[in-house]
Design brief:
Elements: E1 5-8, E2 24-27, H1 46-52
Antiparallel strand pairs: 1-2
Length: 76
């Protein structure tokens, strides 16, 4: 299944002084999955592009921390 979020399980030592994090999650950018830039991609307006950090809509990645709470109190 395709997802922009990946995870891995780091090595946990019995001698770690802190409670271990058993699963770490990270985000991968969408441009990793597009081999080349096709012509005529949809574009943001110049003001939207400044806010989004990219001109092309398929390359936009609104990063959300998987542990953030939404307004309803549930994780995303």
């Amino acid at each position: 299944m395709f997802t922009l979020y990946k995870s891995y399980c780091p090595v946990v030592s019995p001698f770690d002084p802190c409670k271990p994090i058993l699963e770490k999650i990270y985000s991968t950018p969408p441009n990793l999955y597009i081999g080349f830039q096709p012509p005529n991609l949809p574009q943001f307006t110049p003001l939207e592009a400044l806010k989004a950090g990219t001109l092309w809509k398929p390359f936009y990645d609104p990063y959300f921390n998987p542990f953030e709470k939404t307004k309803g109190g549930l994780p995303r």
